[in-house]
UniProtKB/TrEMBL annotation:
Record-given protein name: Binding-protein-dependent transport system protein
Kinase listed as a keyword: no
A Pfam family assignment: BPD_transp_1
Topology in membrane: Multi-pass membrane protein
Keyword Hydrolase recorded: no
Keywords: Cell inner membrane, Cell membrane, Membrane, Transmembrane, Transmembrane helix, Transport
């Protein structure tokens, strides 16, 4: 019986390892191509070099696109935190029955495809007193709506885990006002969950392409738009760009997972 269980366990591990290897092979090939001096008629590259990474990270246009992507994502996430935290506190502490309605409303951004939303935004903000098409402000607003469901669900789960009402009542019994209890007692308990939500949302927003391409394009070039515009350049250069992007997102995801493990 134990031998059957062990053999079954090894079989499952083998299947998982094979699937992981299949998923890893394209990334490994891209990494190797980004390090190759030339790779055409042979099974392996003729030599290895870091010149493509040096060319990428010394390219002003790439650095500008990278910085603009960071700026837009950080702005959208700051807006999300500033608006969502007070809203969730009020809903869960004063109006808990509204949570079911909020769960429905918060998913509405996913009900409309990004292409359809972009067409409507182009008509609405393309001209007139609120002409924002081609500026980072419209991207911050769009990214805010994208990050909203992730932020809302993560913070809501965290508030339910810490038992908000009991925590607030205990703080008020010790003499704290409502806002003192919220800032000094509740907020520190939300720190890790909030950080995980921010990092995971950031890794998702950093790869967004549809809104950035349709609403701003090259007028405010983000990293994904830059990658699309450079598709006809050197394959080695593009491979270095893809690997750099993947490494950056991987580090963010790893940090979020570590924070999540520390939280649990």
């Amino acid at each position: 019986m134990r031998a059957d269980i062990r053999s079954g366990g090894w079989y499952h591990r083998l299947v998982v390892y094979l699937l992981f290897l299949i998923l890893l092979l394209p990334l490994a090939g891209t990494l190797l191509y980004s390090l190759a001096t030339s790779w055409s008629a042979s099974l392996l590259p003729s030599g290895l070099t870091l010149k493509w990474y040096a060319a990428l990270w010394s390219e002003p246009r790439f650095l500008a696109a990278f910085g603009q992507s960071l700026l837009v994502c950080v702005g959208a996430l700051l807006l999300s935190v500033v608006l969502i935290l007070p809203l969730l506190f009020v809903v869960h502490y004063h109006f808990p029955r509204l949570d079911a309605l909020m769960n429905i409303l918060i998913l509405l951004p996913f009900a409309v495809p990004p292409v359809v939303s972009s067409v409507g935004l182009l008509q609405l903000y393309g001209s007139g007193p609120m002409a924002m098409v081609g500026t980072p402000w419209i991207l911050i607003g769009c990214y805010f709506t994208i990050a909203l469901p992730f932020m809302y669900r993560a913070i809501t789960n965290n508030l339910q885990a810490i038992n908000l009402r009991d925590l607030m009542d205990a703080a008020q019994l010790l003499g704290a006002s409502t806002w003192q209890a919220a800032l000094l007692v509740v907020l520190p308990n939300l720190r890790q969950g909030l950080m995980v939500a921010v990092l995971l949302s950031f890794s998702f927003l950093f790869g967004e392409f549809v809104f950035a391409n349709l609403l701003v394009g090259t007028r405010y070039e983000t990293l994904q738009v830059y990658l699309n515009n450079m598709r006809n350049s050197s394959g080695h250069f593009n491979s270095a760009l893809v690997i750099s992007y993947f490494a950056f997102v991987l580090v963010l995801t790893w940090v979020a997972n570590r924070l999540n493990k520390d939280k649990t």
